[in-house]
Write a structure and sequence with these properties.
Spore Coat Polysaccharide Biosynthesis Protein SpsA, Chain A, 8-stranded mixed beta sheet, Serine Threonine Protein Phosphatase 5, Tetratricopeptide repeat, alpha/beta, about 325 residues, single chain
């Protein structure tokens, strides 16, 4: 039995991205809803000319409010939430196979998590992956919560449903170029959310990451150290905290501190490759060239999607010059 699928997109000044987003999903859905929160470019025109229903909602400094406003206008059985600077990888979308899987209790299936593949450079050579629940049943009790880094999963579980961990991929291009306006907006929302939830390490984690992204390394370091041993973060987030702290120490030329922070083994190949590359750079910086060369020769560094290829190539040139 086929289920109808709708798409919810919130957007502001996304004329360069929204057509790609819509084109990536329109073959899979019967309804596309775009909620514009205050664009002054051609976002509205592009969306309406390409089959989207358009609604306006004044931005209230709350991502959940905007997303919940969007999903209210969908009449389909299931909903896909996707951002205007993202695209669905078509050959990964096995939605029908999932909900018709005889090995699953599909009556209990309330949501589907996807792989969010965040590209970090214009050449699309480096990327960071996360899992988020972006596909879910269209039910009144299933909705987003949180002003920023909003989540729908809690409401799915509270409604008595389960979430299926899929291999569906969304490519995200928003991190390729810096957008100071968005970064400062996110910082404001996170600080506001923390003032209301002072013990929420998840919020501190994202604020620290935002400070790191805009180059406020001292503030980022202070926040990351605050949650370094937090039991409220996932293993992946705790790894990221250590990696970010070590990168800050490297930038501050506190190489021994960076080396000390990197005394662990990361779970995933991407994070482990990044850990080794920072470690090698630290040893290189203190003049331990042989140790650095041995680490750089580890093939996992080459395989990591988080390692900057330019830095890697420059390091190899140093060893060639020194004939190591």
């Amino acid at each position: 039995m086929n289920r109808t699928v709708g798409v919810a997109i919130i957007a502001k000044n996304e004329e360069k991205n929204i057509l790609n987003c819509i084109n990536s999903i329109k073959q899979f859905c019967s309804q596309i809803v775009v909620v514009d929160t205050g664009s002054d470019d051609k976002t509205v025109t592009v969306a309406t000319q390409n089959g989207a229903e358009l609604y306006f909602n004044k931005w209230k400094n709350n991502f959940s409010e905007a997303r919940n406003f969007a999903i209210k206008h969908l009449h389909t059985d299931w909903i896909i939430c996707i951002d205007a600077d993202e695209e669905l990888v078509a050959n990964s979308f096995n939605f029908e196979k999932i909900i018709n899987n005889s090995n699953l209790n599909t009556q209990k299936l309330g949501g589907i998590s996807v792989i969010l593949n965040n590209f970090l450079d214009e050449k699309l050579e480096t990327s960071k992956q996360h899992k988020f629940t972006r596909i879910f049943r269209n039910l009144p009790q299933i909705k987003f919560s949180g002003k920023i880094h909003e989540q729908v999963a809690d409401s799915i579980y509270s409604a008595g449903f389960e979430i299926f961990d899929s291999e569906i991929i969304f490519n995200h291009y928003g991190y390729i170029s810096k957008n100071i306006e968005k970064e400062n907006r996110n910082k404001f929302l996170l600080e506001e959310a923390i003032s209301e939830n002072i013990n929420d390490d998840f919020l501190y984690y994202h604020l620290a990451t935002t400070e790191f992204s805009i180059g406020n390394f001292e503030k980022a370091l202070e926040l990351f150290l605050k949650i370094l041993y937090s039991e409220k973060l996932t293993d992946s987030q705790k790894e990221n905290v250590k990696l970010k702290i070590s990168q800050i120490f490297l930038q501050k030329k506190e190489y021994e501190q960076a080396i000390k922070m990197l005394d662990f083994t990361a779970n995933g190949a991407d994070n482990e490759g990044l850990r080794l590359s920072i470690l090698a750079a630290s040893f290189l910086s203190i003049g331990n060239f042989e140790k650095a060369k041995i680490i750089y020769e580890n093939p996992i560094i080459e395989k990591s999607k988080l390692v900057d290829r330019t830095i890697l190539e420059n390091s190899k040139k140093i060893f060639e010059i020194m004939k190591l």
